[in-house]
Specification:
Two copies of one chain form a homodimer. Chain A contains 24 helices and five strands. Chain A is mainly alpha-helical and about 625 residues long. The first copy, chain A, folds into two domains: about 450 residues, Amino acid/polyamine transporter I (Up-down Bundle); about 130 residues, Rossmann fold (3-Layer(aba) Sandwich), CATH 3.40.50. Chains A and B meet through α20, α21, β4, α24 and β5 of A and α20, α21, β4, α24 and β5 of B. β5 of chain A pairs antiparallel with β5 of chain B, so a sheet runs across the interface.
């Protein structure tokens, strides 16, 4: 009962923190992240790719979801008993039709934005008000986080299916994967690295072999086998709602379609043609795989088992637990991890784009040592790790939150494209506008279906989070705009001016550090006051005598405080000075000494009062604070 | 399996952190801790107490341990089977004899130090080298922490025995108790509050009634009953080692004897007489209770049950689960909590004492708002909560770590007292010296027995921790001594001197904040340089042009950094200046601007680069850093 009183992840965090405390942070960072890179190395990184190579790289996100999409759909039907297993066929067919429509719509997007343009760019260019583009951005951001959480969880679930013994560590392993992907991305391994093409190819080939093996089996043993559930039985408790729920879960297989349209420029010339070829091939591959996979699942009557994925079960039926089963397992795992990995390029790029428009904190625009937007990556990793922890890495628990965001973003992008064709015209503009308008209507419908059918299961989280993010983004922009107004100065009329300053040196006795601080103050100011705050009369008297003995280098003011606090009397003193000077003086300059110990453990031996005082004054008063460091030699 | 993925304690911590983030910290603090108190209120707090009132207050720690001491002894014998249950009788007898000797020794301590003197004071006054007193101090500090952990765990175990349903939350409840006691103590409810006398009286009365009920039962049903185990059987696997182990566990009932000797001044005049009366009464009460309790346990053949304390089982036998059982349960709980609570006075007083001698961080000497040594209290609470977490609030797992420290401290104190009598002499000094010498020998023996028999079970932790603490204390003292030497100045010859200073203002553009900072710099210095670090040629050219447009208020230096870092070029620049000035100049003064947002969430929108730069320079360079705050209005 008490054996696992602290989550393993916490142990790892503790170890990391201890490492950071003891080891030079720069070295750890260099070891994990690599040497810093120059800004100009950025453009040297991208190589143009032949479309057949770009295809597997850009399709990881979409194609990998065949590993969990159909299963997510079937899971919704479990409660109706085995007799409705056949419904996987019409649902998968509907999913594939939707896939086809989306592919056509996205080809329109590629034609419109040959330099790459995600939902956010399209919306921003085609709507005057920022609301629509922010809805697209928030929806995409939510979905990127969910893609990482779902892909990693599904990847680990593939491993758990093959090795049930690691089932206990599902959550921890998933979080480790996220941390691992984060580190890899902080190092700057980009999405377009051709090295990722091969495992993706491998997975695609595995799936094709699986499907061929299935048909081979069916040619030998019949297309209706003893375990095949009856076709067409309609149980009384089968409602439209349940079918729609199953359909919307199955549509989680469609996430990731936008990847190619964001990455048009990486295709070898002519990029648009390459991208369209890739889109068509990817659509055909995914469609064939989905239908073949669903059909074999139906024929073999594979049940839902939370501890063994349907893909793993089907592979076992055809190939047993031999080498090929292992290849399928590991390539599933790898493609899902690569899908999560590709999100680590998309999310930070989008946040940087939105931050550049002033809707997100500017720190998301800073390129890290390895030229990636490190802050965005860290945010993505943290959020998805939290989701994994909260949902115990259960893919089926995460699916209801998924897809709604993608389809919301799809809808905004399609409406934007329609508006664009109506405005820009160009060849065949009526056809293009029609395609995108139909796309918009369908994705909007799907989105509404999702929101309604999945509301209770978790979609409400997204429906709350989405407007909150939009609202927060507007507030951020408003803040930045106001700050910009506040900070703007007229270069012609406003110039630096000298002020009269009063300098207050807070002292705790007479010693080398105080000598230092007063020397510093007197090097700068005419008016220097030393301030001593004592907790009893005795210490104050002693201080006064010592000060005289020291020839009183500057006026000394003593304050007695019976509450043993420095902050309160210091603050009152500054209030008094402000009044005594005849209203607020130009500048009050507080000078504090701070011990800088030689070794880290010595920090515990010196009160860091000056830090507290500094923080308090910054928050509450308009006082300039100078810290004079004193480096302890021992 | 995954249902409790995060420990409940973490939730509470999260809630507290969120509260602190959103609510004004001062208000929370005032609500939890109370208004600040003046230093002079300190002495008004202590009222002199009549010894009969002081007795229950000061005996909580010792007397409460009857609730777990005998059980801890018997637990060691469980593996030998039920036939050796009778050994509880000789072991308890030995414990009570040891108790008597310690009481007599401690009365000698009271006579020697009528102003109160714990093991540390006694050792410090009677040994020249600090080693012995530090051993006493470390041993006591370790034991204070263990007292809190054991008392709270035992208190919760009493509740769990009565209400098994809360058994799952044993650890969490124990940690909550520690936090609760901490808050109460931060408020400043002192150990000597007479309010604590009554629940302790109640527990003493409960125990006496329990013992009388036992004898009543035995008069009616015989002193040997059907369930009474046979007396004197010696199983072949009974070794001296096991008996010594049981004895040393049972001795955990003797912790807390030192409390009265530390608190002599709170007795009403004459204090020494009152303290001695209290010692004798407390010794008699504890001895009678231990023997009576052990005898009844033997007669009724009560077995060890980790989910039901022996006290709870015995009370059930006599009184069923009615009202009186409830009273026993809750008074046991309360006295154990009060025992833990009294430690919150002892530990911080001892750490303050040791810190005043320079062996512990000085922050332990600071009295908090409510006049208690808050930092010591927080350290005690944190350490004991960690112990409770690590040992899952299992009293029997904590016992092996216990008592060794107490007896080590006892030994040092007894040797110190012996030395004192030999030196000071006085009336009956030979007798007193003899008593303390015998006490020293016996406690030393007990200590060695503990260390050997309990080594494997956890005593090794203490045997490692104790010398480590002593070593750390010596290192702390050495550090403070060296610092004092380093800081000392000659008031006659060393006076503040004016230096030549170079002031560097780091700017990010031309706006109101920069105007502010340059105004400040020019108000103080003749030599001001503005430094701009750009990441590309374009921004640097733009900056130079704007600067000229602004009539160049001071020289501008621009640096291009392709690694998008401010720290590294800034640091190189300062290195260059240091060399260019012909060796190290007197002072380099770095001026940084810092945005102070209006609302807490706005901090996320502004890079806190100046904090990072400041921290880095303090650690690595001898540069004075001034932060010019800019309070954002929006």
């Amino acid at each position: 009962m008490h054996s696992s009183w602290i989550h393993p992840v916490l142990y790892v965090l503790a170890v990391i923190m201890i490492l950071f405390a003891f080891i030079n942070f720069e070295h750890v960072k260099k070891f994990l992240i690599g040497r810093p890179m120059r800004t100009k190395e950025l453009h040297a990184k991208h190589n143009k790719l032949f479309w057949l190579i770009a295809l597997p790289i850009l399709s990881a996100d979409l194609y990998s979801s065949v590993a969990y999409g159909p299963e997510a759909g079937v899971t919704e039907l479990v409660s109706l008993g085995p007799s409705v297993k056949w419904i996987i066929l019409p649902i998968t067919a509907a999913t594939v039709i939707l896939l086809g429509m989306l592919i056509v719509s996205y080809i329109m997007g590629v034609l419109a934005y040959p330099n790459g343009g995600g939902g956010y760019t399209i919306a921003r260019e085609n709507f005057k008000k920022p609301w629509m583009s922010l809805i697209a951005a928030s929806a995409l951001l939510i979905d990127y986080v969910l893609t990482v959480a779902v892909s990693v969880s599904a990847g680990i679930q593939a491993i758990v299916s093959a090795y049930p013994i690691v089932g206990h560590y599902q959550t921890s392993l998933s979080v480790f994967c996220v941390i691992f992907i984060l580190i890899v991305n902080l190092r700057g391994l980009s999405e377009s690295a051709t090295i990722f093409a091969w495992p993706n190819f491998l997975f695609i080939i595995c799936m094709i072999i699986l499907i061929i093996a299935g048909f081979n089996d069916e040619f030998q043993h019949g297309f209706i086998q003893s375990m095949t559930p009856p076709l067409g039985t309609v149980p009384t408790n089968l409602t439209i709602l349940i079918i729609l729920k199953a359909f919307s879960s199955a549509c989680s297989a469609l996430t990731g379609i936008e990847t190619i349209s964001n990455a048009v420029p990486i295709f070898r010339d002519p990029p648009v043609k390459g991208a369209i070829k890739a889109y068509i091939t990817m659509g055909l591959l995914t469609g064939v795989t989905l239908i073949g996979f669903a059909y074999h699942l139906y024929v073999k009557g594979i049940p839902v088992d939370p501890n063994n994925t349907m893909l793993s079960q089907l592979a076992t039926v055809y190939f047993g637990h031999g080498l090929f089963y292992q290849i399928i397992t590991w390539s599933t795992f790898i493609i899902l991890i690569i899908a999560a990995n590709s999100t680590f390029t998309g999310f930070p790029q989008l946040t940087a784009l939105v931050a550049a428009d002033g809707f997100l904190p500017r720190s998301l625009m800073i390129r890290g040592d390895r030229l990636g937007y490190s802050n965005g990556m860290i945010v993505l990793a943290a959020l998805s790790a939290l989701l994994i922890l909260a949902f115990h890495a259960q893919t089926n628990a995460l699916i209801p939150l998924f897809a709604i965001g993608v389809f919301a973003a799809f809808t905004v992008a399609q409406i934007g494209l329609t508006r664009r064709w109506l405005k820009v015209k160009g060849s065949l503009w009526q056809l293009k506008a029609l395609i995108n308008a139909i796309g918009a209507v369908i994705t909007a419908l799907v989105c509404v279906v999702f929101a309604i059918t999945k509301f209770k299961d978790g979609a409400w989280v997204v429906l709350i989070a989405l407007p909150l993010i939009v609202f927060a983004a507007m507030a951020v922009r408003k803040h930045y705009d106001r700050i910009a107004d506040e900070l703007r100065i007229d270069l012609k009329t406003m110039h630096p001016q000298k002020h009269r300053m009063l300098s207050v040196v807070l002292i705790s006795g007479i010693h080398r550090v105080v000598l230092n601080s007063i020397s510093f103050a007197q090097s700068m100011h005419e008016e220097v006051i030393a301030l001593y705050i004592g907790f009893d009369d005795e210490s104050i008297e002693k201080m006064k005598m010592k000060w005289e003995e020291w020839d009183s280098p500057c006026p000394l003011i003593t304050i007695k405080n019976e509450y043993r606090s420095l902050l309160q009397p210091l603050s009152s003193f500054i209030n008094i000075v402000e009044v005594a000077e005849g209203g607020k003086p130009d500048h009050i300059h507080l000078i504090l000494a701070q011990f800088i110990p030689n070794k880290w453990w010595q920090y515990a031996l010196h009160n860091q009062t000056s830090l507290l005082i500094r923080a308090w004054f910054f928050k509450n008063k308009d006082v300039i604070v100078t810290t004079v460091p004193y480096h302890l030699h021992n």
